[in-house]
């Protein structure tokens, strides 16, 4: 009898997650990865269908807000670089970091290992271009604005960031999420800040802080919006499952 060959699916590639900034946002990323696989399933799922993640949940990374806004406290870069090396040693084949502000230190991560770094900022700018956005309402930490984390990526796509005239309320909201305040009570504040961004001329809202990703249910209806954490999820899915269409 002629022999038959079975084509095995491409092996999953594990992604290392630099997490803990904050812890709940890292868990949300993991949940989004689970949901992304489920959304592309054509039949019943088993454990082995899901993406292998090696998660370094390190809430002890020095405060990015203290360092970048207040100009005090230790530098997060050496801690992040060591986390990257730890993930590489654990078997990760790529790195991802669910914290927009911490992408200020992306070059330190790239220098720490030879692993590809799945850049959430660039992926987000690419998605906004595909969505035909133009003026981007930035729902982000003031540290993201002060360090220009998104500036180069947005400018390369001809996108214009629209910042609130006073981003102190955004920082207060981010801190409230980190403090564990009930999200239901914080939702009206999120909706109001979105409204201010639209008033300033934004035609597309960008959730550019993964703490605020926990409040996307409060985004106003009728205004296009993107969550950078979704863009990172898509990158992770695409890398981990070569040959399988991602979300």
TrEMBL record:
Please give the superkingdom of this protein's source. Bacteria
Matching entries from SUPFAM superfamilies are given as: Aspartate/glutamate racemase (SSF53681)
Which Pfam families does the entry link to?
Asp_Glu_race (PF01177)
Which UniProt keyword terms apply here?
Answer: Isomerase
Q: Which NCBIfam families match?
A: asp_race
Q: Could you say which protein family the record assigns here?
A: Belongs to the aspartate/glutamate racemases family.
Check the record and name the PANTHER family matching this protein. ASPARTATE-GLUTAMATE RACEMASE FAMILY, GLUTAMATE RACEMASE
Protein's name according to its UniProt entry: Aspartate/glutamate racemase family protein
Q: Which organism is it from?
A: Seohaeicola saemankumensis
Q: What is the lineage of its organism?
A: Bacteria, Pseudomonadati, Pseudomonadota, Alphaproteobacteria, Rhodobacterales
């Amino acid at each position: 009898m002629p022999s038959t060959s079975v084509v095995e699916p491409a092996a999953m590639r594990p992604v290392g997650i630099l997490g803990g900034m904050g812890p709940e946002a890292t868990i949300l990323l993991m949940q989004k990865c689970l949901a992304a696989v489920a959304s592309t399933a054509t039949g019943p799922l088993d454990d082995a269908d899901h993406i292998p993640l090696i998660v370094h949940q390190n809430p002890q990374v020095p405060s990015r807000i203290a360092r970048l806004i207040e100009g005090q406290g230790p530098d997060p870069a050496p801690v992040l670089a060591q986390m990257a090396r730890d993930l590489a040693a654990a078997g990760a084949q790529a790195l991802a970091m669910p914290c927009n502000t911490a992408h200020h230190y992306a070059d330190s991560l790239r220098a720490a290992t030879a692993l590809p770094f799945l850049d959430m900022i660039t992926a987000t700018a690419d998605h906004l271009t595909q969505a035909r956005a133009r003026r981007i309402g930035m729902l982000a930490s003031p540290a993201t604005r002060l360090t220009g984390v998104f500036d180069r990526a947005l400018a390369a796509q001809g996108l214009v960031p629209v910042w609130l005239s006073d981003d102190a309320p955004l920082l207060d909201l981010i801190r409230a999420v980190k403090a564990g305040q009930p999200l239901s009570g914080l939702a009206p504040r999120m909706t109001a800040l979105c409204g201010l961004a639209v008033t300033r001329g934004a035609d597309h809202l960008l959730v550019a802080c993964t703490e605020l990703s926990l409040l996307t249910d409060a985004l106003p209806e009728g205004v296009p919006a993107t969550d950078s954490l979704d863009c990172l999820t898509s990158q992770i899915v695409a890398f981990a499952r070569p040959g399988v269409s991602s979300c």
